[in-house]
Amino acid sequence: MKGEIINRVANSKLVTIDLEDYYPEGERVMFDIKDWLLEGLVLREKVFRQHASEHNWQQYENSYVALTCSTDAIVPAWAYMLLSTYLEPYAAKIVIGDLTTLETSIYQHIIHELDVSEFQDKPIIIKGCSNKPIPDNAYIQLTTKLKPIAKSIMYGEACSSVPLYKKPKT
Fold first, then answer.
1. Would you state the torsion angle of the CA atoms of residues 19, 24, 25, 26, taken in this order, to the nearest 10 degrees?
2. For position 118, what pLDDT does the model report?
3. What's residue 2's pLDDT?
4. How far apart are CA 22 and CA 5, in angstroms?
5. Which pLDDT band, with edges at 50, 70 and 90, does 157 fall under?
6. 51, 14, 30: which is closest to 163 by C-alpha?
7. How far apart are CA 81 and CA 85, in angstroms?
8. Do residues 10 and 44 make contact, with C-beta atoms less than 8 angstroms apart?
9. Strand bridging mode 93-96 / 123-127
10. In this structure, which long-range contacts are made by residues 149-152, counting pairs with CB atoms below 8 Å and at least 24 apart in sequence?
11. What is the pTM of this model?
12. What phi and psi values does residue 12 have, to the nearest 5 degrees?
């Protein structure tokens, strides 16, 4: 039939991977310890421990928590370690840093555990433009994991992708 519109993208062997599909549900929380420090700068162990023991940790059930101090205080490692002992029964993940560090850590685990065997020798498009906070590092990690097995890797959408890698012909 002359003039028939054929969707070549739909008929192609391209496989699209959207990192948003792997985004785990759960609230992301920035836990700032500055209010537990004397004048926001000095950690007094007894007072800090008291705050920790009296805090309602159950509110972080299934949450992803980034522990931070937004002031220039010098915070010893044990302080964050102590908080993690309280958070561990409730939180899905705990890191020291900001929300980007948290998302990066979440995706490191997801990509590490991802079974990519189904993508063997296939042309792959890693979808860009997400509505969720997918860290740039996740795209790099996924590309690195796929490169040894993929026929090719592109970024973007099928209609306007950027080629990143093509397996050499043997």
1. -130
2. 95
3. 62
4. 33
5. confident
6. 14
7. 7
8. no
9. unpaired
10. 149/116, 149/117, 149/119, 149/120, 149/121, 150/119, 150/120, 150/121, 150/122, 150/123, 150/124, 151/121, 151/122, 151/123, 151/124, 152/123, 152/124
11. 0.84
12. -80, 170
CB burial class (10 A; 0-12, 13-18, 19+) of residue 126? buried
Residue pair 67/73 in contact by the 8 Å Cβ criterion? no
pLDDT value of residue 10 = 46
Look-up of token digits 């306007």? 160
Mean of pLDDT values over 37-64: 95
pLDDT over 80 (residue 6): no
Residue 124's CB is within 10 A of a number of other CB atoms, namely 24
The closest of 74, 60, 5, 70 to 34, measured between CA atoms, is 70
Mean pLDDT confidence for 45-49: 95
Query: Residue 169: which pLDDT band, with cuts at 50, 70 and 90?
Result: confident
Query: Rounded to an integer, what distance in angstroms lies between the CA atom of residue 147 and that of residue 70?
Result: 39
Of 110, 164, 167, 160, the residue nearest 137 (C-alpha): 110
The per-residue pLDDT for 147 is 97
> Hey, what are 162's tokens?
């950027």
Per domain, the residue ranges of the chain are 8-24+116-166, 28-91
